Structures are given as structure tokens and as C-alpha cells.
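Model it.
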Amino acid sequence: MADHSNPSLKAGELQGRAQVKKDEMISRATDAAHSCKQSCQESMQQAGGSLQQVGEQMKSMAQGSADAVKNAMSTGNNSSGARGGGSTGC
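Modeled.
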């Protein structure tokens, strides 16, 4: 037996189902985008912390190098004065 239902009702039903599917897909896409955004923000915060740590390490190393140079210079000045037999006053 053939289905003799009203074509307008079938079209309305199909349109309703399509709207529901569309809404579900939009909701899933929105959720995925939100999750991605959170993940990216967390990754950026972690990277920022790592960069700050590296910067602090470099600063510490540079300070250590500067101190080593100062110590070497002061040691060099003291030892050259002892070898030279005294200051000439110049």
C-alpha cells in the first residue's frame, strides 16, 4: 500500500529534523572550539612560565659571568702590582 500522507507535512517534518541536526552540530562545534581555546590558553601559560624560567637562568648566568670577570680583573690587578715591585705613581 502506498503512503498517501500530505507532502507538506513530510517536508515540515524533514525540515524540523534537519534543524535539530544542525543545532546539534553547531553545539558540538562550539564545544570543540571552546575546548581548543582552553587548551591553547593553558599551553601558552605553560610556555610563558618556561620562557620566564629560561630568562631567569640566563640572567643568573650573565651575572655570574660578570662577577667572574670582576674577580679576574681584581685578582689580575693585585698580582701585577706584587710582581712589578710596587707602584710607580703613574
